[in-house]
User: Fold this.
Amino acid sequence: MTFHYRDPDGERLEIEADSFADGTPALYIDTTAPIRLHLDQVEDLVAGIRDTRRHAATPHPQAATQATDTAKDRWAQQLVAVLADLDRCAHGRHEGDPCIECDGTSRGNPYIGPDRVIGYSRYGRPLFLPARPLKHEPTAWHTAPTTKDHT
Assistant:
């Protein structure tokens, strides 16, 4: 079990049921940076920590869980790598990166422009290639970029 939290600035906190090398239950806490927590979310955070602690203290068949988590993690990493490559030019450089073949700066993927729909979500929401700084924000893929975002 993993408890996920993202603060208003986009910083992430994850608390995961884990164990020490000797098998003693533990909590693994990972953050991208210091987290700001709204006062009305303190109880949610505490409840998430308690639930994750309970899960860590409950015996689970580790081998099957770890194998599944590893496969899921590998699949997610591969999918993220594919998405991260969508803005590359034919020479393998991300849009805006130095590229000799593109006359100095990569112009990115000529088939996916900032104003083009590149697909649709399960519920028919259009998907766009977000501006470079927003590429790792899932919500940005559902928002039509403005010209200002891509300058």
Summary: The mean pLDDT is 77. The first strand starts at residue 2 and ends at 6. The chain has two helices and seven strands.
